[in-house]
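quick one before i forget lol
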Amino acid sequence: MIRQLSIFAENRKGTMNRITQILADNEVNMNTLITNDSAEFGIIRMLVSDSEKAAKALSEAGYLCHIDFVVAAEIGDDCGCLNAMLTALSRANINLDYLYVTYSSLSKLPVAILKATDLMEIEDFLAGKGYHMLERLA
């Protein structure tokens, strides 16, 4: 499993610039970034080089941060690889809260990032199906 940093931020001009500047100033490298927004606020999810350091710096700057775990599984780079993984999870009646796909600079392969209530269930299931589980991306 990998630690994921989630930031609850106001949907205003310059917010992402301020967040990335704080991370740069604290020498925290972003490996993955995904944003989900609503009219007034958004959730920014990141995989970073040091989630504790990032959360501390961003919290001190007034951002609400949360660190949790997500499952990271390498998938192939061929058409249908993500669908095959999702089909296997569906057939096993495993529900996901959300997922996104990123890239591993180590293996040079796409990586599915998965969030669900029972992360151990997903990790054990996918490992049993032959998927390589990651503990870091870079």
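fyi The longest strand covers residues 64-74.
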